[in-house]
Amino acid sequence: MLTKIEKIPEVEVASDELTYFEDLARKFAVKSVLPIFEGEHSDGDLGRVPELFETALTIGLASSPDMSMAGAEYGIWGSSAESSGLLPSIVLLGTVAETCGGIATCLNVQGVASILARRGRLSSQVLNSKFSPPYIEL
Asked: If you write DSSP's letter for every residue of 52-63 in order, what string do you get?
């Protein structure tokens, strides 16, 4: 049983780096997420979601357990979150959520799954077969 609340350590994050990634998240939301709501799909054209996630992985916004991928270190809940703290990922998620909370939630889940895979708690094979949609390859 927890009896003491420990203070979360404050970590310095370079504001120019955070601004860069926040701008990247904003551009992604405008150029990739917002267009899924155009046309006759009031809840969005879900057929465009696979392309959207491919873009998020390619530009490094979505995290991956594969350290050779762009988002493995600096994506949402990427490996740098262990040293830089929660703030960068929270800012990125909030920026995407301003356009679509559902897509932000999916990016969050992708990041958490990537953390578990990096720590050896889930294999990429398990992630692909049990948790990831078939269009996200880890």
From this structure: HHHHHHHHT-B-
